[in-house]
């Protein structure tokens, strides 16, 4: 599962002008209401775990993929992963610098030494673990949403005959909606009409405007779209196929244990939960920092 992208929604039926601006410009005009930067103090014993020559934790990322990473109207890369990684860097005594890069180039750039870490909605998979370690910070799965104006409740487990919007090549398309559509055909039922878009924001727009009966995406992405929809979208069904998200580092790099220790510190102080809550993420949180799903404390 390789999660990629959302930035916002737009349509004339929306009351939110910010949402409209976000859609047409592919940028997010404002941070969430009540947002504040959480910058914890350096913890010397954690800072001693890694030797960073320039004192800057350089992170490759590929916006837009709200709420994980997206651009503000001024071009700044913001998002929950940016906030979390910045806080972890602060605990490690480092400055944080996100670097926008093609998603496919982030992991090779870590291997090549151009980047320290990758922070871009990475799902921690066995295949990726062959060459990288992942500091896990969240479990996320697939979540559906539908327009609140719909008279009948959509059932994600029985979607035959529906029109469903997805982002192209994401797990929602390849592992969720297309296999379900094929199962419908195999059972003699009407196939799902699949509307595939380059970004999840456009998929969400399709559901919001009624072009699609439902929208399938990674659970935090769907929740973010619902939260920004001015009550025009609602979550349906439960999250399923949960998997860990993680920040990527080179295999056996000192960054892994240091970042896990910094994350554990944030968990224990409550800053971890506060950072995620500011972006509407309250499900899938972890109790202990992990590397490749192995608890470190």
UniProtKB/TrEMBL annotation:
Keyword terms of this UniProt record: Signal
Coiled-coil blocks: none
Signal sequence, renumbered to the chain: 1-21
Name the source's superkingdom.
Bacteria
Please report the stretch or stretches of sequence annotated as the Solute-binding protein family 3/N-terminal domain: 56-283
Enumerate the Pfam families for this protein: SBP_bac_3
Q: What is the protein named?
A: ABC transporter substrate-binding protein
Q: Which organism is it from?
A: Corynebacterium stationis
């Amino acid at each position: 599962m390789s999660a990629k992208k959302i930035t916002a929604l737009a349509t004339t039926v929306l009351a939110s002008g910010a949402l409209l601006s976000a859609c047409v410009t592919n940028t997010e005009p404002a941070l969430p209401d009540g947002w504040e930067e959480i910058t914890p103090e350096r913890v010397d014993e954690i800072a001693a775990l890694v030797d960073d020559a320039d004192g800057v934790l350089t992170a490759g990322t590929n916006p837009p993929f709200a709420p994980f990473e997206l651009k503000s109207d001024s071009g700044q890369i913001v998002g929950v992963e940016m906030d979390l990684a910045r806080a972890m860097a602060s605990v490690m005594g480092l400055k944080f610098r996100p670097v926008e890069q093609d998603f496919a180039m982030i992991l090779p750039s870590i291997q090549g030494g151009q980047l320290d870490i990758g922070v871009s909605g990475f799902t921690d998979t066995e295949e990726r673990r062959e060459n990288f370690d992942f500091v896990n910070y969240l479990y996320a799965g697939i979540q559906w949403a539908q327009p609140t104006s719909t008279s009948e409740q959509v059932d994600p487990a029985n979607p035959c005959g529906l029109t469903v919007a997805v982002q192209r090549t994401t797990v929602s398309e390849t592992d969720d909606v297309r296999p379900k559509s094929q199962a419908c055909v195999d059972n003699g039922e009407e196939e799902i009409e699949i509307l595939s878009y380059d970004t999840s924001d456009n998929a969400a727009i399709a559901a919001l405007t009624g072009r699609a009966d439902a929208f399938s995406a990674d659970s935090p992405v769907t929740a973010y779209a619902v939260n920004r929809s001015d009550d025009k979208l609602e979550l349906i069904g439960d999250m399923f196929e949960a998997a860990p998200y993680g920040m990527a580092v080179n295999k056996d790099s000192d960054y892994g244990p240091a970042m896990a220790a910094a994350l554990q510190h944030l968990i224990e102080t409550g800053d971890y939960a506060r950072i995620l809550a500011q972006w509407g993420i309250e499900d899938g949180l972890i109790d202990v920092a992990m590397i490749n799903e192995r608890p470190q404390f």
